[in-house]
Amino acid sequence: MKYAKIVLSVVVILSVTFMVSCKNVSDKPNTPKEPELSNKFDGTFVAVNGLFGDLPFIGYGMNNLLEKVTGEKRARPHYVSGRIAMELLTAHRDGTLKHPLVLVGHSLGGNAVTDIAYILGKEGVVVDYMVVVDAPVPREIGSNVRDVTNFLCSKLSCVGVPLNKGEEFTYDVDHIPLGNDERLHRYIFKKLNLKYKD
């Protein structure tokens, strides 16, 4: 009889524990799902190369990124940043500018995208995401830029400086290869909710 009471007590305790644990599982709040990744970017994506970026052995990083995101093969040169800003402003004014608007620039192209964002900000145009890659003299990032990431490198050839806002990552690579660094490309794809393309 004594053993029967002990066994019954253990069964009751285990049953109560099981019911409580089941209740806690069902009462847990829904955890947010990971965003579904897309195969296609549906917005405006501008990639800008730096000095001598037209040369394939220098501008390959932004060219490769642009092709992965949009299918286009050539990033814009930094020296046409004024023209790029005017094209974006025109699209904004006539209602054809697709958001999210993403600006990505490497080296002098990084300087250029900060200039483009500044010009757009004067007209109230929001830049949804901006990536600055080892830019030597970037402009201060304005309030019209919702999100910004600064990628720097740590080798002797590196020229980038910190920005006044946003996330910052430093990789132990040289200046030119940084633009094509897979970690950088993967991070941008993640920010854009895109499936990464090797």
Overall description:
It is a single chain. The protein is α/β, with parallel strands linked by helices. It has a single domain, classed as Alpha/Beta hydrolase fold, catalytic domain (Rossmann fold). Helix content is 40%, strand content 15%. The protein has six helices and six strands; from the N terminus they run H-E-H-E-H-E-H-E-E-E-H-H. The chain has helices at 2-27, 60-70, 81-93, 108-122, 175-178, 182-191; strands spanning 44-49, 76-77, 101-106, 129-133, 148-153, 167-171. A six-stranded parallel β-sheet has the order 2-1-3-4-5-6, with helices on both faces. It is globular, with a radius of gyration of 25 Å.
Q: Which key phrases capture this entry?
A:
198 residues, alpha/beta, Rossmann fold, 6-stranded parallel sheet, 40% helix
Protein topology:
Blueprint: H1 2-27, E1 44-49, H2 60-70, E2 76-77, H3 81-93, E3 101-106, H4 108-122, E4 129-133, E5 148-153, E6 167-171, H5 175-178, H6 182-191
Parallel strand pairs: 1-2, 1-3, 3-4, 4-5, 5-6
Gyration radius, in Å: 25 Å
Q: Kindly, what is the distance between the CA atoms of the first and last residues, rounded to a whole number of angstroms?
A: 70 Å
CATH superfamily: Alpha/Beta hydrolase fold, catalytic domain
Structurally, the number of domains stands at 1
